[in-house]
Amino acid sequence: HLLSLVGPERIALGSDFPFPLGEVPSIAPVTNEHLDVYPGQMLDQCDWLKPAERDQMAGATALEFLGLQRGPQGDLTVVQSA
User: Fold this and answer.
1) Cα separation of 67 and 81, whole Å?
2) CA distances from 52 to 49, 69, 82 (A)
3) Are 12 and 65 in contact (CB under 8 A)?
4) What is d(CA 41, CA 33) in angstroms, rounded to the nearest whole number?
5) Can you tell me whether residue 12 is helix, strand or coil?
6) Most C-beta atoms within 10 A of its C-beta, which of 18, 30, 70, 78?
7) By C-alpha distance, which of 10, 14, 12, 11 is closest to 24?
8) According to the model, what pLDDT value does residue 17 have?
9) Do 25 and 36 form a contact (C-beta atoms < 8 A)?
10) Taking the chain (82 residues) in consecutive chunks of 10 residues, what is each chunk's mean pLDDT?
11) What pLDDT does residue 25 have?
12) Residue among 49, 70, 53, 48 nearest 11 (CA)
C-alpha cells in the first residue's frame, strides 16, 4: 500500500483534477446499471483507515501543500511562515 510507504501526509486524493477518481454517477458499460456515488466514497468505504488518516488524505495534505489551515469554524487562513 502507498499509505504504508509514504504515510497519509504525502497523499492528496483528487490532486489529479479534473480527472475523477471514478466517484461520479455513471452507467456501468456492460450491465447498464446506474451507479450512485459521491466524492470521498472510496475513502469512506476503507474501514481499515483510521479517521485521522482519512481526514489527512481527503483534505489536510492539500491544505498543507497550499500553505492553508482550517480554523475552528471551517474558515481557511494562510499559514504565516516564521
Assistant:
1) 9
2) 8, 16, 26
3) yes
4) 18
5) coil
6) 70
7) 14
8) 57
9) yes
10) 91 68 72 77 87 91 91 88 71
11) 75
12) 53
